[in-house]
Specification:
Layout: E1 20-21, H1 23-30, H2 34-43, E2 49-50, E3 56-59, H3 60-70, H4 85-90, H5 98-108, H6 111-123, H7 128-144, H8 153-172, E4 184-188, H9 197-208, E5 212-215, H10 222-232, E6 236-240, H11 250-262, E7 267-271, E8 284-286, H12 290-303
Parallel strand pairs: 4-5, 4-6, 6-7, 7-8
Antiparallel strand pairs: 1-3, 2-3
The protein binds cobalamin (B12).
Cobalamin (B12) binds next to helix 7, helix 8, helix 9, strand 6 and strand 7.
Length: about 300
Amino acid sequence: MSTKGMDLQRGARMIATEPAYSPKELSQVIGLSESTLKRWVDSGVVAAVKTPGGHRRIPRTEAIRLIRESNLPVIDPSGLGMPELSLAQESPTTPGLEGLRLFELLREGDARHVRGLLISLYLSGRSIIEIADGPIREAMQRIGELWQHSESGIFEEHRATQELSAALAAIQTLLAPVPTTAPLAIGAAPSGDPYGLPTLLASIVLEAAGFRTQNLGSDLPLTSLALAAEQLSPSIVWLSLTSMSPPADATAQIGSLADRLAARSIRLVVGGRNRGIAPNHPAIHHAMSMGELVAFARQIAVKR
Ligand code: B12
């Protein structure tokens, strides 16, 4: 694998630091012949760059696209820089039980296997939306039931959040680069809301849908979120509301944020378990899932 001395060809977009494979290297990873891959590159089925010496190089994000869309098996996970994938391959999960499996791995604190499972779901063609609204939501719901029964529940909630965040960061490196001209989306969870995972997921599903994103994290004062929007002019702002003990004036604060955004024609989309605290406001859209967030963001981007 090398990243040196490449020219962009045939519209393949890649980030400067992105790894790339020769047809031979990739053929060993996915078990196709080198000549098949060379043919696909030359016919444009697979986008590639060429080194100054004329050698074909397939960017990793393009290799990932090929694996996902063609449902190709990964025979050598290490060759793809993802050795933890073999953990998921050694003990395959029954379809439909991915949320339960993820819960068990999070409960065991097995961070590598968690990463392997999420990467394997993604490589098998599942979208990040499906993974977020499906197995991740279910596994965290199960984790959330533990604290009522055992003292260790709280640290398990923190650990599960950390392990999933790390796994999602690994998946983020597999996404196709977003053009600098793509619409921007920014968002956060408000002051008093410590929940980091939902706002992180919002940012990743939007990035996978082709948006530039800035996740401003949890516990952010809404006046700061308004200021960020005024400076950055995003197409949309998301607000994730999970905490069940929000400040007494939370509804009024969200209304003020929506007013400031509406003055710049920026729409606010709210979601999360406690989204009911957001007021009914013409500039606020209420959504129940990451799928609905992306659908709404796409509508707004088309209109602008
Ligand atoms: C992790 C966690 C914590 C961690 C958070 C760590 C961190 N850094 O993020 C910590 C330990 C801090 C914590 C604390 C508490 N927690 Co807590 N926590 C959880 C847990 C297990 C997971 C939350 C999570 O990340 N879920 C993953 C996301 C992806 O799933 P989701 O929230 O369902 O989100 C989906 C949708 O709502 C939507 N969505 C979410 N955000 C957005 C945003 C937009 C814009 C859109 C469109 C959609 C959208 O898409 C998501 C995917 O489908 C939940 C259980 C659960 N069911 O969620 C309990 C849970 C929320 N906590 C609970 C409780 C009681 C508490 C505590 C009071 C006590 C405790 N357990 O420690 C404190 C209170 C903290 C506070 N100030 O509010 C309860 C709330 C009960 C209630 N009244 O409803 C829950 C439900 C657990 C339970 N079953 O009892 N918690």
